[in-house]
């Protein structure tokens, strides 16, 4: 049995590449699409030396981007820290700062919440924003949509053992860490049929949601996400994004 969650995805993409992996509204992504997008985001991580021992904070709902980020972090051996989007802004800022993450993957609507923590955390190497226009982005701040829709990815070979921490669920006083092996076992226990529709709900900050997503991918079932990739508006200049740019520049 495969015990690396990114390899579960790669195996499903090899045997059922044209099958729908994720649907969001009228948008459909095949397993081949998902695996390619995961490799492209993983390449962005690897180019910034984000890998084993690093944390990737995730602040978004049950979206397609969240699913891509889960497997991209796994592919480079990093540990995903999914944050609960339903938490208040003050608590979220505190959790982001506490995470000491090498990267934060979030949505433009959370840019204001993230900006303060980004300004204070110089260990941060990368921010990836979904739904942000290109003018917001820089060397250290990428557009999720532009990154995964770009040209072919650099080859990323899985190298971390199955015992490597893959996800850390926020808890106090210590986060609950799950290895690749733990997650693969949780997914297998879901016994998902390959023709099932599995919602990505409420978010990957939920153990139940994580198990369902991994079980679905291992079985070749179809995930139902809340949102697809966002096509940003080129003239967007809202206050939160401007604050985010200033934080990055500082």
What is the secondary structure topology, with strand pairs?
Elements: H1 5-16, E1 20-24, E2 27-30, H2 31-47, E3 55-59, H3 64-75, E4 79-82, H4 89-99, E5 103-107, H5 111-120, E6 126-130, E7 141-143, H6 144-148, E8 165-169, E9 176-179, H7 180-189, E10 197-199, H8 207-219, E11 222-224, H9 239-249
Protein model, in words:
With 250 residues, the protein is an alpha/beta fold. Helix content is 40%, strand content 18%. The protein has helices spanning 5-16, 31-47, 64-75, 89-99, 111-120, 144-148, 180-189, 207-219, 239-249; strands at residues 20-24, 27-30, 55-59, 79-82, 103-107, 126-130, 141-143, 165-169, 176-179, 197-199, 222-224. The strands form three sheets. Strands 4-3-5-6-7 form a five-stranded parallel beta sheet. Strand 3, helix 3 and strand 4 form a beta-alpha-beta unit. Helix 1 packs across helix 2 (31-47) and helix 1 packs across helix 3 (64-75). The longest helix has 17 residues, at 31-47.
